[in-house]
């Protein structure tokens, strides 16, 4: 969920192709040293993308998880840096029978070794958002988002990648979360796609394994599919590795057809990226989690790769599976219901009928609900290009209240090429305004309110 509201709103299978900027980057001694620091565990082999699905050395991988941010958005605490809290909660994760947690914000200056090992020992992966409330895109309006896409922001994002790339149980990175939440905010799409491109470029340039990178979309019917198409269109170096969205349409008692999940399967049946639910679990009525059987059933596995239930700890939005008080964890009825649903639904066998092709989508046409009118993307801010060769350096962490949204030097234009202004490929446009047609904006201002990243 996003910082603005704690209440929920009810990619490519090929690894990154080298652009002209990166064509001279080879595996030198620093790359070999970096790979040598990889922290592996036989219980969590690395996950990669093949066609429209995730795979490990053990076969197809389905996300069976929960969203995890004790304290909620207001605290913005890093649960992966809390060793005792991690040990406390992993015991409950094991009891639930999950294999993945999503964390919305971390401190990229902290040590995460202990918790990541505890998770790996339990066979649990991490799906991680790379943004924080103060280091994020500002979707207030087009000038604001253009201003917030700067080298200070990308330094923090890349530092988070540096901090977690060494763990084999880092499943994926979310480049952004719910930035587009209605038809008036689709102007932000090129910046979300640019950040996704930049993270993938950074991972490749720094010699890391190909950790999947993609976007988590809001539960907004009017442009959710257009965003899916957009994140998967174009050349391989600008396509995402996966697409995820939040879905609260199954409210018990419901069914595969009553919820409309059957229609979404049909809509996405030819989609070329792994697709999963980054949040699910409507709490309008008593939650029985009957959707678990459908999500991992034969009707959905050709298209979906699982999902994450919102959320582990009880916060203001009343979605918690447990209550946390110090070292004490008290299971709520929802914990028991989810545990039962998962235990009664075995992981699918075989490849689940996945599509091996992983083809690109057509970019969506501009319309009243989709404002993007070009396939060009913002060029990477020129001062951020050094990070690709030299690394991002120490992360800023979660301290302070200044952040990146009004710092640094933003991108100066759009290009049809890769991340860099200096590749010489594509045409660069000096004004970002050419990329969209704007509708009237009604979104409220405020640094915390516009970060569009967290719970």
From TrEMBL:
<keyword id="KW-0732">Signal</keyword>
<dbReference type="GO" id="GO:0031505">
    <property type="term" value="P:fungal-type cell wall organization"/>
</dbReference>
<keyword id="KW-0325">Glycoprotein</keyword>
<keyword id="KW-0378">Hydrolase</keyword>
<keyword id="KW-0472">Membrane</keyword>
<dbReference type="GO" id="GO:0005886">
    <property type="term" value="C:plasma membrane"/>
</dbReference>
<comment type="similarity">
    <text>Belongs to the glycosyl hydrolase 72 family.</text>
</comment>
<keyword id="KW-0336">GPI-anchor</keyword>
<dbReference type="GO" id="GO:0042124">
    <property type="term" value="F:1,3-beta-glucanosyltransferase activity"/>
</dbReference>
<protein>
    <recommendedName>
        <fullName>1,3-beta-glucanosyltransferase</fullName>
        <ecNumber>2.4.1.-</ecNumber>
    </recommendedName>
</protein>
<dbReference type="InterPro" id="IPR004886">
    <property type="entry name" value="Glucanosyltransferase"/>
</dbReference>
<dbReference type="Pfam" id="PF03198">
    <property type="entry name" value="Glyco_hydro_72"/>
</dbReference>
<dbReference type="GO" id="GO:0071970">
    <property type="term" value="P:fungal-type cell wall (1-&gt;3)-beta-D-glucan biosynthetic process"/>
</dbReference>
<keyword id="KW-0808">Transferase</keyword>
<dbReference type="GO" id="GO:0098552">
    <property type="term" value="C:side of membrane"/>
</dbReference>
<dbReference type="InterPro" id="IPR017853">
    <property type="entry name" value="GH"/>
</dbReference>
<feature type="region of interest" description="Disordered">
    <location>
        <begin position="389"/>
        <end position="429"/>
    </location>
</feature>
<feature type="region of interest" description="Disordered">
    <location>
        <begin position="340"/>
        <end position="360"/>
    </location>
</feature>
<feature type="compositionally biased region" description="Low complexity">
    <location>
        <begin position="408"/>
        <end position="428"/>
    </location>
</feature>
<dbReference type="GO" id="GO:0016787">
    <property type="term" value="F:hydrolase activity"/>
</dbReference>
<keyword id="KW-0449">Lipoprotein</keyword>
<comment type="function">
    <text>Splits internally a 1,3-beta-glucan molecule and transfers the newly generated reducing end (the donor) to the non-reducing end of another 1,3-beta-glucan molecule (the acceptor) forming a 1,3-beta linkage, resulting in the elongation of 1,3-beta-glucan chains in the cell wall.</text>
</comment>
């Amino acid at each position: 969920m996003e910082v603005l509201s704690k209440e929920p709103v009810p990619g490519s299978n090929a690894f990154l192709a080298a652009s002209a900027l990166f064509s001279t980057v080879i595996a030198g001694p620093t790359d070999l040293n970096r790979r040598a620091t990889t922290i592996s565990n036989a219980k969590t082999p690395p996950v990669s993308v093949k066609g429209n699905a995730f795979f490990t050395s053990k076969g197809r991988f389905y996300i069976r998880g929960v969203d995890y941010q004790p304290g909620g958005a207001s605290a913005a605490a890093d649960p992966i840096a809390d060793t005792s809290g991690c040990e406390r909660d992993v015991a409950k994760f094991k009891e639930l029978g999950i294999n993945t947690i999503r964390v919305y914000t971390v401190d990229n200056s902290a040590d995460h070794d202990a918790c990541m090992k505890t998770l790996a020992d339990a066979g649990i992966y991490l799906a991680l958002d790379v943004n924080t409330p103060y280091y994020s895109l500002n979707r207030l309006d087009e000038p604001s988002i253009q201003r917030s896409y700067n080298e200070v922001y990308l330094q923090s994002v890349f530092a988070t990648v540096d901090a977690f790339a060494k763990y084999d149980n880092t499943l994926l990175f979310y480049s952004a979360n719910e930035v587009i939440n209605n038809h008036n905010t689709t102007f932000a799409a090129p910046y979300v796609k640019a950040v996704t491109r930049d993270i993938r470029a950074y991972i490749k340039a720094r010699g890391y394994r190909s950790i999947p990178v993609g976007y988590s979309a809001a539960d907004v019917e009017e442009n959710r599919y257009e965003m899916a198409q957009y994140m998967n269109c174009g050349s391989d170096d600008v396509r995402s590795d996966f697409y995820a969205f939040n879905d609260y349409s199954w409210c018990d008692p419901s069914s595969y057809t009553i919820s409309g999940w059957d229609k979404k399967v049909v809509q996405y049946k030819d989609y070329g990226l792994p697709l999963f639910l980054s949040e699910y679990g409507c709490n309008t009525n008593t939650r029985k989690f009957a959707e678990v059987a459908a999500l991992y059933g034969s009707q959905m596995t050709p298209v979906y790769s699982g999902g994450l239930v919102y959320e582990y700890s009880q916060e203001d939005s009343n979605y918690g599976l447990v209550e946390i008080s110090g070292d004490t964890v008290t299971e709520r009825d929802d914990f028991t219901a989810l545990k039962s649903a998962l235990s009664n639904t075995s992981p699918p066998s075989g490849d689940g009928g996945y599509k091996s092709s992983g083809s690109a989508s057509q970019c969506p046409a501009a319309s009243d609900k989709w404002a993007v009118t070009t396939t060009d993307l913002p060029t990477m801010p020129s001062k951020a290009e050094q990070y690709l060769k030299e690394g991002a350096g120490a992360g800023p962490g979660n301290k302070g209240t200044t952040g990146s949204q009004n710092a640094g030097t933003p991108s100066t234009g759009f290009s049809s090429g890769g991340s860099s202004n200096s590749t010489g490929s594509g045409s660069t446009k000096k004004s970002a305004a050419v990329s969209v047609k704007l509708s009237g904006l009604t979104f409220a201002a405020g640094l915390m309110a516009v970060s569009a990243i967290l719970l």
